[in-house]
Amino acid sequence: MRDMTSSLQPATGDAPLHVAQISGVLFATLNRPDRRNALTDDIVAALDVECERVANDDSVRAFVLRGAGGTFCAGGDFGGFKALMREPAPATGRDPIAIYNRRFGALLEKLAALPVPTLAVIEGAAIGGGCGLAAACDRVIMAADAHLSMPETTLGLPPAQIAPFIIARAGVSRGRWLMLTGQRLSAAEALYAGLVDETSSPGGIDALLQSELARVLAAEPAAQRATKRIVADAGIRERSLVLDAAAADFATALRSGNVNEGLAALAAKRAPTWQIAQPALPETP
């Protein structure tokens, strides 16, 4: 696949999300460094659009989420909430604050449901909603000098939309305690808690990302999409139905010809045609 760069908005310093696609990997960089990449309305909207595009674009093989300016994400932006708080709660129907809050949860659901491998790259800090973004990804890597926290309860709020994604990663007991206390975690502590999968030395995060992407791009894309589908189904459907659908996916893969290429490459001790050994990274804004 040829290298390409694409953006739904001009890839300038003013775009809330910088988007680049290289060798099938879509890199989405939160681009509000002056606000530590807080989750402003424009960032959430841009991420939502990108998730929709990735879900419907077979040319995308992986999705990488990171932040500009050395910080992953400082969490929610209270500007929108403050405007809504000036108005009293409605006598009937859903509170507009609840509707506004739920939009972020819908974004996390879309991110978690993407059909390709997803990676979050934490530098600097991941706070509140930033932890939710990372937890919704398949793989989370973190610079050794970064930290994360979920301080919502210390501010008088529940971690409403991120909680299901945190406990899915860290487990119920550990995730619940971390959210109840708002404890700040170092990279080593986040790794132990299960919120992070790998850590790098300071300055080594790009090398670690390239190593992770090389593993992703060594696997056949359709097989990866089928694997994500099977795993997602396993959490919500009856086991026998999951196995029936998985058998159909297996048959489709076996008849596709990709297996022949994989076996031929193994026998010849060469890389299969889909493998990209050294994925390039775009410049971070």
TrEMBL record:
SUPFAM superfamilies attached to this UniProt entry: ClpP/crotonase
UniProt xrefs under InterPro entries: ClpP/crotonase-like_dom_sf, Enoyl-CoA_hydra/iso, Enoyl-CoA_hydra_C, Enoyl-CoA_Hydratase/Isomerase
Which Gene Ontology MF annotations are present? catalytic activity
Pfam family, any one: ECH_1
BP GO terms, sorted? isoprenoid catabolic process
Family stated for the protein in its record: Belongs to the enoyl-CoA hydratase/isomerase family.
Q: What is this protein called?
A: Enoyl-CoA hydratase
